[in-house]
């Protein structure tokens, strides 16, 4: 017998539906799973068909897309994906049952309780699923179930729950919270050993026990002084909050839980040492390193197990959920346009705007006014007559000066010549 089995007061390990209960019992597990599930549910999905040329064409109307957006009469697509995210984080896998009509046409998608799914093997390979309900097992064909899971190195056919890795920290936080509740509810302060100098009869023992429970348990009676009869001595044996370093314990488990789920503390509302720059970095890393890989895993599962049941060459994809640095993008696109790397219309296409008639030409510095007005600079009308009249007026002064200089020069030379001739 191992030490764990020999300790009667050891905390039980979570199994099966106990992982689902952790969502409502442990505050930081709830906070992390809720944030991840919300992020998964808010992703924008698009359906594409690949034509014979290998080009991707977006499809707005298709039975697979209609069912995807309206899975059944009881829930929306957001609710379906919210449950998917919850199951992935708590159990490590999620199951969708594809409901068919008499003609084998898929008419509905229903999420299943992941903890009740059992896989039946044949020669070491999956044969069918069994859904357990109160002692009964409902067989489900592999083709009727969409199984989305986190890879499990121990069992490649089942998912691995992130909560299993953080179970010890999560349960520590749960029991610490529960102990704190009981501290105030049951007034832990008078709990200890009551020592009697003489043996108590059964009647005296029961009376003393009932008296203590009635007078000293409950929030209103917390930390009251205990009154004992003559011959009885009380010795407290409990640890104080300081001895247990209670607050530090809960901070440590909070950090460990958030780290396992890949959630920055700032996303949980913990604003210690957070400014605008670090908040952006946290948003970026959370989206890129936590949510995007999960969406990629979901996308591949849908493309493999869901869409082929409708038509070949169909693919789901999602819009990028990674936040962009707007200041960096503005500077990048301005440099690309100024240096001839991209045209105005190419930039507008990347930003999701319609092209403009004048946007396919290379950038001209004289068109910088475009950035403020949104319109290309207009050419001024050219009047030749006014141009030459203005030029003549501008040059008339120069011409008159030159005439006077020439006349004075010739007059000077004329005087010099006459003087020479007189000599």
Strand order of the largest sheet: 2-1-11
Low-confidence stretches: 1-13, 369-373
Number of strands: 11
Protein structure class = alpha+beta
Helix content: 40-55%
What general outline do the C-alpha atoms trace? elongated
Q: What is the CA-atom radius of gyration, in angstroms?
A: 40 Å
Order of helices and strands: HHHEEHHEEEEEEHHEHEHHHEHHHH
If you average the pLDDT, what whole number results? 77
Query: Which range does the strand content fall in?
Result: 15-25%
Figure out the total of helices. Answer: 15
N- to C-terminal distance: 148 Å
- Please outline the major beta sheet: 3 strands, antiparallel
How does this model look, in words?
By secondary structure, this protein is an alpha+beta fold. The protein contains 15 helices and eleven strands. The protein has helices spanning 3-6, 17-25, 27-41, 63-69, 77-90, 162-165, 167-185, 202-216, 241-244, 246-261, 276-305, 326-338, 344-351, 370-373, 384-422; strands at 45-50, 56-59, 93-100, 106-112, 117-122, 125-133, 136-141, 145-149, 192-196, 232-236, 314-318. The strands form four sheets. Strands 2-1-11 form a three-stranded antiparallel sheet. It is elongated. Residues 1-13 and 369-373 have low confidence and may be disordered.
């Amino acid at each position: 017998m191992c030490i764990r089995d020999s300790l009667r007061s050891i905390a039980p390990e979570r199994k099966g539906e106990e992982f689902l209960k952790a969502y409502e019992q442990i505050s930081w597990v709830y906070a992390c799973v809720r944030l991840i599930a919300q992020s998964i549910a808010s992703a924008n999905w698009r359906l594409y068909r690949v034509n014979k040329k290998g080009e991707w064409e977006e499809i707005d109307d298709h039975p697979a897309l209609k069912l995807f957006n309206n899975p059944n009469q009881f829930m929306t697509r957001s609710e379906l994906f919210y449950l998917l995210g919850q199951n992935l984080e708590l159990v490590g896998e999620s199951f969708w049952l594809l409901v068919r009509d008499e003609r084998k046409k898929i008419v509905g998608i229903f999420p299943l309780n992941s903890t009740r799914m059992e896989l039946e093997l044949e020669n070491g390979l999956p044969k069918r699923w069994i859904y357990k309900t109160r002692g009964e097992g409902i067989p489900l064909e592999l083709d009727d179930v969409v199984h989305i899971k986190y890879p499990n190195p121990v069992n490649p056919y089942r998912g691995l729950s992130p909560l299993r890795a953080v179970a010890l920290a999560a349960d520590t936080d749960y029991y610490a919270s529960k102990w704190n509740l009981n501290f105030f509810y049951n007034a832990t302060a008078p709990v200890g050993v009551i020592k009697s100098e003489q043996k108590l009869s059964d009647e005296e023992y029961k009376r003393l026990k009932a008296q203590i429970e009635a007078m000293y348990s409950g929030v209103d009676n917390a930390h009251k002084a205990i009154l004992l009869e003559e011959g009885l001595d009380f010795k407290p044996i409990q640890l104080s909050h300081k001895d247990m370093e209670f607050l530090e314990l809960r901070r440590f488990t909070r950090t460990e839980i958030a780290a396992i789920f890949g959630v920055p503390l700032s996303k949980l509302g913990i604003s210690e040492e957070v400014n605008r720059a670090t908040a952006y970095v946290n948003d970026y890393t959370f989206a890129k390193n936590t949510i995007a890989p999960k969406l990629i895993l979901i996308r591949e599962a849908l493309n493999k197990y869901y869409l082929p049941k409708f038509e070949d060459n169909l693919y789901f994809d999602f819009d990028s959920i990674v936040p962009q640095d707007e200041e960096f993008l503005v500077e990048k696109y301005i440099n690309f346009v100024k240096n001839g790397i991209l045209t105005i219309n190419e930039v507008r296409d990347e930003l999701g705007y319609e092209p403009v008639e004048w946007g396919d030409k290379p950038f001209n510095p004289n068109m910088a006014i475009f950035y403020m007005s949104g319109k290309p600079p207009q050419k001024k009308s050219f009047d030749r007559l006014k141009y030459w009249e203005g030029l003549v007026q501008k040059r008339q002064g120069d011409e008159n000066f030159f005439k006077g200089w020439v006349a004075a020069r010739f007059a000077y030379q004329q005087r010099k010549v006459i003087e020479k001739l007189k000599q």
